[in-house]
C-alpha cells in the first residue's frame, strides 16, 4: 500500500502541539510498519539528521519536496500538493493538521482516499477568531473536510461530540467514519521517575528559579489558554497571603497569535516578579520543569485533548485544571477542577494546592491512568484507520 503523509508543518521553527503530534505519529508509523510504503511531503529539504530520526531507519519511508507555486494565490495544500497527488496518487493520504486538499477532490474525488485529523473546534469556543469572515471560513473549511475525508481521526470523545453537535446535518454521513485516537507520551515524561536531583538543581539554575515554589503551565501562549484571568487570580493569592509572596508562576510555550494581553498581565496585576515566560522549552527541559513544579495549572477555555495535562499526570503532579469535558474525560476525578471563566474559582484551586491539601491518592491514580497513553498505541490505531480507508 502506498501511503502519503502531509508533513509541511514539520519544517518550521519552534514547533507547538500540532507539530509535535505530527512528528510523533510519523515517527511511530515508521517504527511499527515495515510493510507499507510511505511518502512524506515537505515544502523544503529536511536536514539529514532530522529525517533519520523521523523515519527511524525505515527503508520504506521516503520524502518528496513539493515546492509552492509562485504568485499572489499561493496555497501549498490546495494547489501544489493537490497537483502532486493528482499526478502521482497514493492509496491513502493522511492529513494530520485540520485540512484537506479541496482542489484535488474537485478534480478527481475518487482518485485517492483522505484520512484527516481534526485536533479541536476551538474556533467555536474562544475569541481568537474575532473576524466573523475568518470564523465563517473556518467553519466551512472544516465542513468540507468532514464531507470529503474517507476517515476522520479525533483525539477525544469530546471533539467527536462537538463535531456532531456543530454539524448536525452531517451526522448520518460522518458519525461512523470518526475514530477517537488519543495522543501519547514521549520518553521524557514516561521516564520522569529517572530525573535526577542534579538535573532538577540544574534546571533551577538555568531558569533562575532559586528555591521558589512554582506552578507550571506549558502550551502556546494564545487567547483560548485564558492566561490573563489565570494570572489575575494568581496575583490575588500572592497579594492576600503573605506566606505565598515568593511563589512563582512559570509559563513555557512559544508566543502564538494575540499573545500580548497574556504577556502584559503580570505588570497589569502587579506581580511582574512572580511570573516568568520562558517561551518554548525543549521536551527534555519541560519534563524536568514539570517534575520540579509544585503543581501543574491550566485554565484553558477549550482543548481537543490536553497533552500537557497527561504529561503532568506522568510526572506525578497535582493538577489545577479547567472543568471542561475533555479534561474530565482524560483525568476523571483525579484533579482540582476550576471554572475557567470565574476568577474566584481559579483562586480557590490555587489556594487548595498551596495549602498542601493531601493530593496523594489523586496523584497516584492519575499516574496509573497516564500509563495507558503511548505513541506506539496511537500509531497502531492510526495505521488501522489508514488501512481501512484504503
What series of H and E elements makes up the topology? Answer: EHEHEHEHEHEHHEHHEHEHEHEHEHEHHH
Oligomer: single chain
Name the CATH architecture of the largest domain: 3-Layer(aba) Sandwich
The number of distinct helices, counting runs of at least 4 residues, comes to 17
Any idea of the CATH topology of the largest domain? Answer: Rossmann fold
Using DSSP, what is the number of strands? 13
User: Would you tell me the overall average pLDDT?
Assistant: 91
The span between the termini is: 8 Å
Low-confidence spans: pLDDT under 50, at least 5 residues?
none
How does this structure look, described?
The protein has helices at residues 17-32, 48-55, 76-87, 102-107, 132-148, 157-166, 171-174, 187-190, 197-206, 227-240, 260-268, 283-292, 307-314, 325-331, 343-354, 360-370, 375-389, and strands spanning 2-6, 37-42, 61-65, 92-95, 114-117, 151-154, 178-180, 214-218, 248-252, 275-279, 295-298, 319-322, 336-338. By secondary structure, the chain is α/β, with parallel strands linked by helices. It folds into two domains: 2-184 and 375-389, 3-Layer(aba) Sandwich (Rossmann fold), CATH 3.40.50.2000; 187-370, Glycogen Phosphorylase B (Rossmann fold). It has a seven-stranded parallel β-sheet, sandwiched between helices. A six-stranded parallel β-sheet has the order 10-9-8-11-12-13, sandwiched between helices. The longest helix has 17 residues, at 132-148. The protein is globular and about 70 Å long. The protein starts with a strand and ends with a helix.
Amino acid at each position: 500500500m502506498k501511503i502519503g503523509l502531509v508533513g509541511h508543518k514539520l519544517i518550521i521553527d519552534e514547533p507547538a502541539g500540532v507539530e509535535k503530534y505530527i512528528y510523533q505519529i510519523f515517527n511511530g508509523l515508521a517504527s511499527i510498519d515495515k510493510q507499507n510504503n510511505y511518502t512524506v511531503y515537505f515544502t523544503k529539504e529536511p536536514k539529514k539528521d532530522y529525517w533519520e530520526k523521523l523515519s527511524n531507519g525505515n527503508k520504506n519511508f521516503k520524502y518528496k519536496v513539493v515546492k509552492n507555486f509562485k504568485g499572489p494565490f499561493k496555497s501549498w495544500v490546495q494547489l501544489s500538493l493537490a497537483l502532486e497527488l493528482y499526478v502521482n496518487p497514493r492509496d491513502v493520504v493522511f492529513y494530520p493538521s485540520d485540512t484537506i486538499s479541496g482542489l484535488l477532490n474537485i478534480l478527481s474525488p475518487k482518485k485517492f482516499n483522505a484520512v484527516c485529523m481534526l485536533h479541536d473546534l476551538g474556533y467555536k469556543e474562544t475569541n481568537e477568531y474575532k473576524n466573523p469572515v475568518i470564523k465563517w471560513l473556518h467553519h466551512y473549511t472544516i465542513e468540507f473536510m468532514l464531507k470529503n475525508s474517507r476517515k476522520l481521526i479525533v483525539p477525544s470523545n469530546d471533539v467527536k461530540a462537538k463535531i456532531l453537535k456543530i454539524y448536525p446535518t452531517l451526522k448520518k454521513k460522518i458519525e461512523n467514519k470518526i475514530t477517537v485516537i488519543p495522543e501519547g507520551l514521549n520518553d521524557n515524561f514516561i521516564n520522569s521517575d529517572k530525573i535526577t536531583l542534579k538535573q532538577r538543581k540544574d534546571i533551577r539554575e538555568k531558569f533562575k528559579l532559586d528555591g521558589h515554589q512554582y506552578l507550571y503551565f506549558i502550551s502556546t501562549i494564545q487567547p483560548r489558554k485564558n492566561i490573563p484571568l489565570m494570572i489575575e487570580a494568581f496575583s490575588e493569592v500572592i497579594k492576600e497571603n503573605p506566606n505565598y509572596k515568593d511563589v512563582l508562576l512559570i509559563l513555557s510555550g512559544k508566543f502564538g497569535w494575540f499573545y500580548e494581553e497574556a504577556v502584559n498581565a503580570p505588570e497589569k496585576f502587579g506581580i511582574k516578579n512572580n511570573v516568568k515566560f520562558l517561551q518554548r522549552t525543549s521536551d527534555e527541559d519541560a519534563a524536568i520543569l514539570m517534575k520540579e513544579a509544585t503543581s501543574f495549572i491550566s485554565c484553558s477555555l477549550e482543548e481537543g485533548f490536553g497533552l500537557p495535562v497527561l504529561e503532568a499526570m506522568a510526572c506525578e503532579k497535582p493538577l489545577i485544571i479547567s472543568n471542561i469535558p475533555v479534561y474530565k474525560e482524560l483525568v476523571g476525578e483525579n484533579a482540582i477542577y476550576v471554572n475557567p471563566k470565574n476568577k474566584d474559582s481559579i483562586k480557590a484551586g490555587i489556594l487548595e494546592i498551596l495549602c498542601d491539601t493531601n493530593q496523594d491518592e489523586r496523584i497516584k491514580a492519575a499516574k496509573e491512568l497516564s500509563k495507558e497513553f503511548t505513541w506506539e498505541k496511537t500509531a497502531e490505531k492510526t495505521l488501522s484507520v489508514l488501512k481501512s480507508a484504503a
